[in-house]
Amino acid sequence: MSTDPAIAPSDLVTGPDGLARPVWAAADPMLRDYYDTEWGMPVHDERGVFERLSLEAFQSGLSWRTILAKRPAFRSAFADFDPDVVARFDEHDVERLLGDAGIVRNRAKIRATITNAAATVALRADGGLADLVWSFRPDATPAPRTAAEVPTTSDASTALSKALRARGFAFVGPTTMHALMEALGIVDTHLVGSHRRGTSGVWH
């Protein structure tokens, strides 16, 4: 753990491997692996961005651990988040998904995912989803020293939310879009002192 007194002792935990992680990623093996290998690493492909956008929408009101545990089932249910396939889902697919205990069975979120797949396909004519989302990378990234300093929204996420809504996307509020930007590496909100801080290559 960093000895910097500005970092609260409870906000970073040093594991048996000697690496400092935030409390949420320190104990649970699944969350620790996600934190160490995925969260905050750049994603630039359309399907990867669409998957993360979809899962962040499903996460709204729930814990991320719940979504991560169900991710294999989500991928199976939503055709590996292939926008072309999901955009063609109909009412029979909606009912099928509502009967799938492996995912979060929320009709509004299921419909939003189908809507967003169609919007993703349509966006290809104007550069594509990934380019649009990355175009909202801010000039600077936060540098939180404590969990309390980690923002949950920003001017950039609010602007991204507005832009996506204008393109026909749903369940893309500013808080959800901020979480997406964190997940994709567009902003780096790893705590100062974490072994992952600055490792994405996007921010130094």
How would you portray this structure in words?
The structure is a single chain. With 204 residues, this protein is mainly alpha-helical. It has a domain of 139 residues: Endonuclease III, domain 1 (Orthogonal Bundle). 47% of the residues lie in helices and 3% in strands. The chain contains nine helices and two strands. A two-stranded antiparallel ribbon has the order 1-2. A hairpin with a 5-residue loop joins strand 1 and strand 2. Helix 2 packs across helix 3. The radius of gyration is 17 Å and the shape is globular. It starts with 11 loop residues before the first strand and ends in a 20-residue tail after the last helix. The N terminus is likely disordered.
**Basic shape:** globular
Main sheet summary? 2 strands, antiparallel
- Average the pLDDT over all residues and give the rounded result: 94
The arrangement of helices and strands along the chain is EEHHHHHHHHH
Low-confidence sequence ranges: 1-8
What is the compact description of this entry?
It contains nine helices and two strands. It has 204 residues and is mainly α.
Per-chain topology:
Elements lengths: L11 E3 L5 E3 L6 H9 L8 H14 L4 H14 L5 H4 L4 H8 L8 H17 L5 H6 L20 H12 L7 H11 L20
Helix pairs in contact: 2-3, 2-6, 2-9, 8-9
List keywords for this structure.
disordered N terminus, Endonuclease III, domain 1, globular, 204 residues, 9 helices, single chain
